[in-house]
Design a protein that fits this description.
Two copies of one chain form a homodimer. With 224 residues, the first copy, chain A, is α/β, with parallel strands linked by helices. In chain A, the strands form two sheets. In chain A, strands 5-6-4-3-7-8-9 form a seven-stranded mixed sheet, with helices on both faces. The first copy, chain A, has a two-stranded antiparallel sheet with strand order 1-2. In chain A, β5 and β6 form a beta hairpin. In chain A, α1 packs antiparallel against α4. Chains A and B meet through α1, α5, α6, β8 and β9 of A and α1, α5, α6, β8 and β9 of B. Chain A binds a DNA duplex (24 and 24 nucleotides) through α3.
Chain lengths: 224, 224
DNA sequence: TAGATTGTTAATCGATTAACAATC
DNA sequence: TAGATTGTTAATCGATTAACAATC
């Protein structure tokens, strides 16, 4: 009976860590839904992910009240609620910019389409690449970005360009009215506060891994 | 004159956030080195990255004393010190496991090799892929992993396999004695505490972006 | 020397966890 | 009802920032 109450209209953006965990909860719930499990408690949901039960409740509490005391959370109820919160209850027409190795691979990557991120236009600066076909889409010139943005209603852009081009391209993206950028270039980009950016810095991840391996007890060196 | 003093022998693993920022400092310093700048203060270094000067000093202080009061940090001194701290002052022979779109792209990606991560062996379960050549390396069967690990001294593995294979492959990787895993599979993997894992979850990043775009003032919808 | 800047301690801020009344 | 579990407040823990003596 209790329709999940409206989220907090105070509308503060949730902390990064909270949003990341909500994505994990959602994945877990999608699995439970497939398995046909009807309800789950915060402690069960947390245990599966190594997260404290109070944390699970607090995280969800950030967005509203979704649980049933004595029962837990109804999987069929919480799952769509979290999809709505994350904004993946609808498609996101997305541009891929930069079709080097990484860009081409991500265009073909299934994981994005599955979550509603539809790559519908490809752009590259290199005239030799323009016109090429990648996964059924023709690569466009970067100049074509403003027109394509309005025609295709592009909302997001994935940036897979070299470091020295990243800021310039980001400026073009912003000028077109695109509101979100996933930045794979190994350099931070600056955008107006109305535009959202998430950076995926692969080298930094790998450096962090090297640090951990080097400093985990037992050491690493074969020479030791 | 003051050779950077030995790092904290107490050897606690630095917090994730600290290590991430140290990677950023290093990149910044490498740029300064190329430009020939001799010294930099914590406030200058921080300003370039939007980080508080006290934070910069505290982060570096975690690993030792590298600065010179009244002067700042000598670029030519701090740069190699940070490389050593992160463990990228030497090559890391790395295996790529799973040669779908993402795996193949990452094998060709220059950013890894530049930082000392040398992908020297490729593995896939699919017999049709075994023997194929990717970027000059022949794809091996997964069964070949133990032998290749000792022959090539493999220290790290990059996992680009589907979700349902991730844990099984991780177990094989651990059994071979590989000490670090960069996991691109959209599912957390469990490994012994002596093994390090960094997860790169592309869908979670994109979901976070959708959340931010949806909840940033001004909204997003064309219907609004 | 005077000015600049570090390394580090103390103060602040934010995030996680514990505890428990309210509720099914 | 008794047992389970939520939502939320208070307590704890950790990370960031401010402040400043020490130093070049």
């Amino acid at each position: 009976m209790p329709e999940p109450r409206r989220a907090n209209s105070t509308e503060r953006l949730a902390p990064k860590a909270v949003v990341g965990r909500v994505s994990l909860y959602l994945r877990q719930l999608e699995g439970l839904l497939r398995q046909g499990q009807a309800t789950i408690s915060s402690s069960q949901l947390g245990a599966a992910l190594g997260i404290n039960d109070a944390q699970v409740r607090k995280d969800l509490g950030f967005f509203g009240q979704f649980g049933h005391p004595g029962i837990g959370y109804r999987v069929a109820e919480l799952t769509p609620a979290l999809r709505r919160i994350l904004g993946i209850d609808r498609p996101w027409p997305t541009a891929m910019i930069g079709l080097g190795n990484l860009g081409r691979a991500l265009v073909k990557y299934r994981g994005f389409r599955n979550r509603g991120f539809h790559i519908v236009a490809l752009f590259d600066k290199d005239p030799k690449k323009v016109g090429q076909n990648v996964a059924g889409l023709a690569v466009r010139a970067l100049d074509d970005l403003p027109r394509a943005t309005s025609e295709l209603n592009l909302a997001l852009a994935i940036l897979c360009v070299p470091a020295d081009a990243a800021q310039r391209v980001a400026d073009q993206v912003v000028a077109c009215g695109i509101m979100g950028v996933l930045n794979f270039a190994p350099v931070p980009i600056t955008v107006p506060s109305s535009v959202s950016v998430m950076a995926v810095d692969l080298s930094i991840q790998l450096e962090h891994l090297a640090y951990k391996v080097q400093n985990t007890q037992g050491g690493v060196s074969y020479a030791g």
